[in-house]
């Protein structure tokens, strides 16, 4: 039986009808709402490529049933910044070469944004690495990723974000 729900998706209300209550948030975003910035890596909670924010907190969208999100606020990489006004994490990833092929990058950026909003100490690289450990990068761009997260955390703290 179809299930109707409403999400706030990247700041806008979206009515969604789920014809299958087992659909994950990842498949809802990519296959039904054309938001393909969120990537599917492992589809089993091991790589972090599918990371989005739900009510401000980081989640693996491949492990999240869409049907549990009625009334929730979901932010994907498409809603974090714009080409004209990048989010500080996006800008820092570019400045510090925080990616190579880019496949893991949307998940890395969403995870970093969530981690910073949790109150990350920008001067603790070990904590950054630990906090980002759920996001795997097969290209091994970890050095640039850590520098980017550190830079973004510093800037956002300075801006009071
Ligand atoms: Fe979700 Fe890998 S695709 S954790
Ligand atoms: Fe290629 Fe991370 S940049 S997997």
Automatic annotation (TrEMBL):
Organism, as annotated: Primorskyibacter flagellatus
InterPro entries with a match to the protein in the record: 2Fe-2S-bd, 2Fe-2S-bd_dom_sf, 2Fe-2S_ferredoxin-like_sf, 2Fe-2S_ferredoxin-type, 2Fe2S_fd_BS, Aldehyde_Oxdr_Iron-Sulfur, Beta-grasp_dom_sf
Pfam families tied to this protein: Fer2, Fer2_2
Molecular functions (GO terms): 2 iron, 2 sulfur cluster binding; metal ion binding; oxidoreductase activity, acting on the aldehyde or oxo group of donors
Keyword entries, A-Z: 2Fe-2S, Iron, Iron-sulfur, Metal-binding, Oxidoreductase
Superkingdom, taxonomy of origin: Bacteria
Stretches assigned to the 2Fe-2S ferredoxin-type domain: 3-80
Protein name in the entry: (2Fe-2S)-binding protein
Alphabetized Gene3D superfamilies for the sequence: 3.10.20.30, [2Fe-2S]-binding domain
